[in-house]
Every structure is written in C-alpha cells, then in structure tokens.
C-alpha cells in the first residue's frame, strides 16, 4: 500500500498558470478549479493511488514570517488566483479527499508531518510536489518525492544526484544557497556546486571550519566563501531554520481515513452546479453513495 500526499498549493498555482481561463456564472475566475478537478481525478485513476490527502496553505503567511521579515507573503499573487484557494479546498473535499488546511504552518509542513506519521504504516509515501525543501523528507525508497509536471521521482539516491547532498542536509543546503520561492536569501557567493561539495563532506553548517585552510575539500574561492560564512554564520543558521520542515503538525486522521472511497455525489454535484462546471459533474469514476 502506498500513501500519496499532494501539495495542494502547488497544484493550484500549476493549474492557474497552465489551465484555460474560465468564469463561473457570477463572474468569478475558476479556471484553476476546473484544472485541479481534472488533474486530481486523473491521479486517482492511476494504479496504486488508494490513499490520498491534500495539504494547502489556508493562509500564505506562517510562523516563519515572525522569524524573518523577508520570508514569503501573499504579495504579488494575482487576485484571481487568491480567490480560488477556498474553492480548491471545497473541490477536493467534495471529491471525498482529506484536506489539511494549514494556518500557523505551511502546506509543506503538513506533507512532512503526514510522511513522518504514516511512513511506518505503508510500503511507501509519495510526496507529490517539486518543492526543494521536501527533499529533506526523503528516506531511502520509503519516502520519495514526485514532480507530476516533469514526471520525475526522487528517492534518496535521486536527492544526492540532484542536490549533491543527503536529504538530512537539505535545510543546510538551502540555508547557504537560498530558496527564492520562499524568500530565503542564502549567503553571497555560496552557489549550488560549492555548497554541495562542502556539505557532502561536513553535512551541517556548524561543522564547516571558519578557516578555508582547514577545509578537507577543494572548491573555488574557498577563502572568500569561508570569510562570508564566518561573518554571516548566524544568518545561515536562521535561514536553515526557516527551511526545516515541521513534523509536529496535528494530524487527527488515521491511515484508514485517507483511503479514497469516491466522491460525495451530493456535495460534488452541488459544487459543480454552483460554479457552472456541468461538464465535470459526471467525471468521478467512483462515488461514496
């Protein structure tokens, strides 16, 4: 048995920028909603997809915004997209899928917590997201990530091949390189290649010596990198903390609760009717009732 955990926020963004625009009878933009319904039903038809949950950012800001002023916010997100966040959650619930709506935490924290809670109860957990920070959750072949758009699956070996470091070092990697998607700046000069070379050996930021003469690895501009790290090590540690995904998000459901038993006919048909999605009202291939 496998457990699939879907990054709902990423799916909504992907659908908004990839699906055709569409208007509800009241004029609201719902193109992304139509897109995620079709995409999710397609996922549920794939072999081995029996247990599924979706994590969403009910609000964009999280506890990390209190830690660092530069952390990502909802600024710049198109109004037409923001207006579909609640509708997306309603759509997944009408399809009979458990939705973890993050308020204090982020969607990726929900996915990480789900993987942590259920890993020992299933043969494999598949994190359906391309987000870099989720690579820290990968555990051998037991917990993997899967990018649905590019059709790329990464196990632990795949993380090494992609980033040059072990999954456990991903937060340190992002602390040094940065992550523009989350507003984590990283340190000047610390690029992907040099960071991977150093962390592949030292594993954590704390273990990297201050003096490049003491480094047991060879990288370009080592002296300059060491100087930058020595001057900004506390910043790097803060950035790493921002990148560490939480595993303590309260998840009340048991594994059996995540088994997909079909869409709720009443709720789903009512949802489609309200948005003028008549063509999608008969799409589910299984009904609860």
The proportion of strand residues reads 5-15%
Order of helices and strands: EHHEHHHEHEEEHHHHH
Number of domains as seen in the coordinates: 2
Q: Name the structural class.
A: alpha/beta
> Helix count, per DSSP?
11
Question: Which CATH architecture of the largest domain would you pick?
Answer: 3-Layer(aba) Sandwich
Query: What is the 3D form?
Result: elongated
Enter the CATH topology name of the largest domain.
Rossmann fold
Query: Helix fraction?
Result: 25-40%
- Strand tally, please? 6
Average pLDDT rating = 95
Secondary-structure map with pairings?
Elements (H helix, E strand, L loop, with lengths): L1 E6 H11 L12 H14 L6 E7 L6 H4 L11 H4 L2 H10 L3 E5 L4 H12 L5 E5 L14 E5 L4 E3 L1 H8 L6 H8 L14 H11 L19 H22 L21 H11 L14
Parallel strand pairs: 1-2, 1-4, 2-3, 4-5
Antiparallel strand pairs: 5-6
Helix pairs in contact: 1-2, 2-5, 5-11, 8-9, 8-10
Using brief descriptors, characterize the structure shown.
Rossmann fold; six-stranded mixed beta sheet; 40% helix; elongated
Task: Characterize the structure shown.
The protein is an alpha/beta fold and 289 residues long. The protein has two domains: 159 residues, Rossmann fold (3-Layer(aba) Sandwich), CATH 3.40.50; 77 residues, 5' to 3' exonuclease, C-terminal subdomain (DNA polymerase, domain 1), CATH 1.10.150.20. Helix content is 40%, strand content 11%. The chain contains eleven helices and six strands. Strands 3-2-1-4-5-6 form a six-stranded mixed sheet, sandwiched between helices. Strand 5 and strand 6 form a beta hairpin. Helix 8 runs antiparallel to helix 9 and helix 8 packs across helix 10.
């Amino acid at each position: 048995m496998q457990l699939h955990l879907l990054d709902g926020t990423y799916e909504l963004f992907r659908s908004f920028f990839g699906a055709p625009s569409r208007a509800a009878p009241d004029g609201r933009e719902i193109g992304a909603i139509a897109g995620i319904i079709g995409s999710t039903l397609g996922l549920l038809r794939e072999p081995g997809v029996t247990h599924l949950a979706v994590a969403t950012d009910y609000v964009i800001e999280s506890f990390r915004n209190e830690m660092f002023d530069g952390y990502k916010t909802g600024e710049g997100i198109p109004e037409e997209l923001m207006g579909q966040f609640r509708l997306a959650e309603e759509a997944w619930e009408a399809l009979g899928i458990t939705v973890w709506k993050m308020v204090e935490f982020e969607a990726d924290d929900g996915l990480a917590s789900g993987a942590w809670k259920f890993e020992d109860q299933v043969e494999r957990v598949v994190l359906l997201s391309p987000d870099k920070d989720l690579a820290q959750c990968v555990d051998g072949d037991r917990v993997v990530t899967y990018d649905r758009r590019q059709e790329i699956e990464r196990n632990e070996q795949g993380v090494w091949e992609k980033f040059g470091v072990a999954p456990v070092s991903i937060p340190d990697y992002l602390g040094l390189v940065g992550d523009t998607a989350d507003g984590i700046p990283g340190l000047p000069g610390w690029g992907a290649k040099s960071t991977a070379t150093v962390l592949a050996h030292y594993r954590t930021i704390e273990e990297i010596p201050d003096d490049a003469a003491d480094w047991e690895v060879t990288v370009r501009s080592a002296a300059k990198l060491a100087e930058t790290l020595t001057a900004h090590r506390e910043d790097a540690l803060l950035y790493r903390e921002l990148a560490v995904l939480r595993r303590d998000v309260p998840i009340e459901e048991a594994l059996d609760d995540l088994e997909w038993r079909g869409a709720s006919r009443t709720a789903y048909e009512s949802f489609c009717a309200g948005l003028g999605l008549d063509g999608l009202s008969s799409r589910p291939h299984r009904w609860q009732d």
